[in-house]
Amino acid sequence: MKSIAFYLLVLISPFSYVLGQQPGHTFAFSDKEFMLDGKPFQMISGEMHPARIPAEYWQHRIRMAKAMGCNTISAYIFWNYHETAEGVFDFSTWNRDLTRFISIAQQEGLWVILRPGPYVCAEWDFGGLPTYLLKTPDIKVRCMDARYMSAAERWIGALSREVKPMQITQGGPVLMIQIENEYGSYGNDRNYLTALEKAWRNQGIDIPFFTGDGPTRYMLEAGSLPGCAVGLDSGYDQGSFDLAYEMNPGVPVFSSETYPGWLTHWGENWVRPDTTGLLKEVRFLMDTKKSFNFYVIHGGTNFGFTAGANSGGKGYEPDITSYDYDAPINEQGLPTSKYNALRKLIGSYLPEEKELPGIPEPIPAMEIPEFQMEKFTSVWASLPESVKSVQPVPFEALDQNQGFMLYKTTLVGHKSGKLKVTELHDFATVFLNGNYIGTLDRREGIHTIDLPPSEVVNPVLEILVEGMGHINFAQEIIDRKGITDRVSLNGMTLMNWEIYKLPMDEVFIKSLQVKSATVDKPGIFFKGVFKLKTTADTYFDMSSYKKGVAWVNGHCLGRYWEIGPQKRLYCPASWLNEGENEVLIFDLLQSTSKPVKGEKLPE
């Protein structure tokens, strides 16, 4: 029986080599333990996602995890964040530079485990899958559908070229790679999981694999693979571990997702789980020397249009922009009371002569005095050339995966009455002859609205649709955006539409121009300018606006919505300038400009 001191020496002993040097370390499985250099290794991992963290802060967040007692960093890698267009991969710009992220962990003396999917969930848009897949009407994902597998194998090939030199077998810090994610909660195609494992091996990945599933018999049977370590989401008691050992004998079992916090949807209260149960679970894991991974130790931010959605008991549940997750390290990188409690608990298992590293200095934050916003232009003055279609089609059919889309038709036959949008995804504003009528909201199950009588001979109907997060979990992940079925008026299907693509991407935003005409019709862009002598992180207070998207100096902060709970959007210092700065807001509902300010804290 090894002493706890022995295990903690393994835990805290940093390795001193840099990438490509002294490749003498080994990592393998015994019947029930991870073996590092031939000795039992208790992995204490903190999960963070490079895509949700400004690259300038990667080292700070990794050091924060180390100071809390972690010896490993776990990271989801989002396929759709790196395949920026079909067949085009980016592993080099800003926070897509995975080699740099992994190298920083190595420089800080930490090991790495990667969770690259292809599907990952993670409350990320479409669970990390690229939405170009949805252009194929009958595609099936997360199975042996040849069209899906072709794309998935291309992803594995591209990522393998980045990961291969970072493996422990090549002198790098990457110990293990996860196959898929919580597959037993979705499907039972073990051939699919085996094919993914083979695809990684064919690309030269020679480190061990693991799977991750809930601790139930049916999930473990459908989601685990012989020879792959078993991750439990979560492994909170001995019974969960015993079940996993029974279901997949001969490999280590660990808690791949020990939850310090939880996610929050729009319209909910902030989810803030009690720390008492967490500390009890971590104490059990430490006492029994079981490996585990905090999901998440630091959540970060769903910048741009990357937030996903769930399809739980309420139906459609879009995730907020913040991925703070009530994690031990908050959205801006500050330690919380939960962090301090976990640090104290983990530190109590150290030998007397050892102590955890000091907590890094906090990243500075600043207030920005209130500045005025002005009407800049409108979506109506910025429409591109339309696409004509007999009936509405979803975003993906027109190679758009985010933003908004305007559907426009002239009413023939019925011209007033009950308007119904079948399978609206996800939120819409409705206009008749340019006049605002009201909203439709998938989240609330509101898909009908009354159109008033019109004296116009040929009334024009416009439906401006916002696609929010693609569903990222369970059976509803085939979740195309826009009007995905049809529009009817008093039961009559409306035909002959003009469709305008409004992706709100960098190209579209740069194309916007000032329009001199007065704009009152909702769907307005507001612009404001402020000056700074120095820069620091800030949270832009959006509480004076209703629903939309905000940009700072061309960088998309993400969505805001008056229903909360989030009212402030995080902006890293790297997106601000010394001197002049510009804020752009697109609001679906508001017609009057209101001032904006920056705050030091998220609320």
Number of distinct helices: 11
Count the beta strands. Answer: 34
Proper CATH architecture of the largest domain? Alpha-Beta Barrel
CATH class of the largest domain: Alpha Beta
Shape: globular
How big is the Rg? 25 Å
Instruction: Outline the biggest β-sheet.
Output: 8 strands, parallel, barrel
CATH superfamily of the largest domain: Glycosidases
Biggest sheet: strand arrangement: 4-5-8-9-10-11-12-13
Summarize the structure in short:
The protein has 11 helices and 34 strands.
Keywords:
single chain, 603 residues, alpha+beta, TIM Barrel, Jelly Rolls, 3 domains, eight-stranded parallel barrel, six-stranded antiparallel beta sheet, 34 strands, 18% helix, globular
Describe the structure.
The protein is of the alpha+beta class. It folds into three domains: 4-347, TIM Barrel; 368-376 and 512-599, Jelly Rolls, CATH 2.60.120; 387-502, Sandwich (Jelly Rolls), CATH 2.60.120. It is 18% helix and 28% strand. The protein has eleven helices and 34 strands. Strands 4-5-8-9-10-11-12-13 form an eight-stranded parallel β-barrel, surrounded by five helices. Strands 18-27-19-24-21-22 form a six-stranded antiparallel beta sheet, with no helix packed on it. Strand 9 (174-178), helix 6 (190-202) and strand 10 (209-213) form a beta-alpha-beta unit. Helix 9 (275-287) packs parallel to helix 10. The radius of gyration is 25 Å and the shape is globular. 49% of the residues are buried.
